[in-house]
Amino acid sequence: MELKALYARLNRVFKDVFDDDSIHITPRTTADDIEDWDSLEHITLISAVERTFKMKFKMSEVSSMKNVGEMVSIIAQRTKL
User: What is the pLDDT of residues 63-76, one digit of tens each?
Assistant: First the structure.
């Protein structure tokens, strides 16, 4: 999967989890950029991403992710991009 396709697929996950079709993620997107992204929704998001990409994040990765770019980097490594 190309990086562009990965972002497109991940963007659909964000739109579904936050029920907001106006979301457009970038590598620099953080929880501060999405109104409903709180700690509870973060868990829902991580779970949805794991299901979508058929992979699992380590707890240390989940707690240390600072933006979507870091999430994409981990997904790319796990899905052998």
Answer: 999 999 999 999 99
Question: What tokens appear for 81 in the block?
Answer: 């991009």
**What's the CA gap between 74 and 77, in Å, rounded?**
5
Distances (CA, A) of 9 to 2, 62, 63: 11, 19, 22
Helix axes 68-78, 3-18, angle to 10 degrees: 120
Distances (CA, A) of 43 to 3, 5, 49: 24, 23, 10
Give percent of the chain above pLDDT 90: 93
| CA gap 56, 51 in Å, rounded | 8
Q: How far is it, in rounded angstroms, from Cα 38 to Cα 26?
A: 18
